[in-house]
Amino acid sequence: MGARNQKFWKYYKQYEVAQMKAMMNNGQKDPLICTDRFDNKLLVITGATSGIGYHTAKKYASMGADLLCINRSEEKSIQLKAEIESGYQVKCDYLIADLGKINEIHAVADQLSALERDIDVLIHNAGLTLSKQQLTDEGYDLIFVVQYLASFIINYKLIEKLKVQESARIVMNNSEGHRFAPWGLHLDDLQFKKRRYSGLKAYGSAKLAQLLSMQIFREKFESSGVTINAMHPGAVKSDTGKDNGPLYKWYKRNILDKFLRPTHIASDALYYLGVSKDLENTSGKFFHLTTEEIPAPPAWDVAEAKKLWDISLELCNLKAQ
Ligand SMILES: NC(=O)c1ccc[n+]([C@@H]2O[C@H](COP(=O)([O-])OP(=O)(O)OC[C@H]3O[C@@H](n4cnc5c(N)ncnc54)[C@H](OP(=O)(O)O)[C@@H]3O)[C@@H](O)[C@H]2O)c1
């Protein structure tokens, strides 16, 4: 039997109807709310200039946290800084990085690891959806880079700094969309060069890759006081899809948006996951908003996670540590 078939049967046997039902039920729930303040702590967040990231930045600022936002637009960052600093009397700094460019991800990761201040919460939020494939300068699939490799490189380069701090939380804004790769990753074709491109599959593969990497990062941070978790932010209103063509934008505006929930449920959840004492020792878990959920079987495949880890190090020109 070929390797793809083997994977199919392995995962097929692990799927359970009860888990699918749980996922549907979790989609109806509201997030738990954390009312603890976060004064003088530092949130580092990617993609704070719109949608969930913007609401999350405001939520943390409203609870007293300083912000360091990693955005690609200088103009939007200046506006955000002015709005946050005048509205909440906290500091809102920013670093500019296009997280679709490997060299810029490395550069921003280096800046973060050189920060003298502790990073209390790091939220990987920046993301996009595409219906047509775009390649990066390195010839990588753009979705794979923004939605997976950016968090991989930043987390990897922050391992030592966060361990030295002895306390930090990483939260990755993942997605139920990881289920769009139901039979696992094509480790021999992560960039969709040998297969027909599908926006949903590319998105699902990148989110699945991020969940697999979480397993290894959880091990690396074991007993260090640093936790790493991932979440699905609900299906909420945002600017997602703005990089697609007019047909998609019409569909989103006139049909999809009518079924979406308010954005604040995602930011409330990201605050709870980053701050609540209930999760002090919780690591390596997937949450639907704030409800712990079992992700799809390919996301718990440890052997696959290890293989992906080695491939990712090579793709990003990182040395094993
Ligand atoms: N909305 C949902 O229902 C939903 C569901 C599941 C998962 N998610 C996840 O939630 C996250 C946030 O998405 P959203 O829905 O809030 O979308 P959004 O409104 O489009 O926000 C995306 C953010 O990411 C930034 N970004 C995109 N490409 C970037 C790049 N190359 N470099 C740096 N920043 C970049 C955007 O910057 P600009 O402002 O410059 O464009 C923006 O700040 C994504 O990871 C998405 O997959 C969302």
What would you say this structure looks like, in words?
The chain is built from 10 helices and 8 strands. It is an alpha/beta fold. The chain has a single domain (3-315), classed as Rossmann fold, CATH 3.40.50. It has helices at residues 3-14, 17-26, 51-62, 74-88, 102-113, 142-165, 199-220, 246-254, 264-275, 302-315, and strands at 42-46, 66-71, 92-96, 121-124, 168-173, 226-232, 286-288, 291-293. Strand 4 (121-124), helix 6 and strand 5 form a beta-alpha-beta unit. Strands 3-2-1-4-5-6-7-8 form an 8-stranded mixed beta sheet, with helices on both faces. Helix 3 crosses helix 9 and helix 6 (142-165) packs parallel to helix 7 (199-220). NADP nicotinamide-adenine-dinucleotide phosphate is lined by residues 47, 49-53, 71-73, 76, 98-100, 125-128, 146, 173, 175, 232-233, 235-236, 238-240, 242.
Please summarize the sheet with the most strands.
8 strands, mixed
In the CATH hierarchy, what is the superfamily?
A: NAD(P)-binding Rossmann-like Domain
According to CATH, what is the topology?
A: Rossmann fold
**CATH class category:** Alpha Beta
Q: Give me the Rg, rounded.
A: 19 Å
**Low-confidence stretches at least 5 residues in length (pLDDT < 50)?**
none
Extended strand count? 8
Give the % helix.
40-55%
Bound molecules: NADP nicotinamide-adenine-dinucleotide phosphate
Number of domains: 1
Q: What would the average pLDDT be, to the nearest integer?
A: 96
State the order of secondary-structure elements, H for helix, E for strand.
Answer: HHEHEHEHEHEHEHHEEH
Query: Biggest sheet, strands in spatial order?
Result: 3-2-1-4-5-6-7-8
Structural class assignment: alpha/beta
Please report the number of helical segments: 10
Distance between the termini: 35 Å
| Shape, per Cα inertia axes | globular
CATH architecture: 3-Layer(aba) Sandwich
Give the amount of beta strand, in percent. Answer: 5-15%
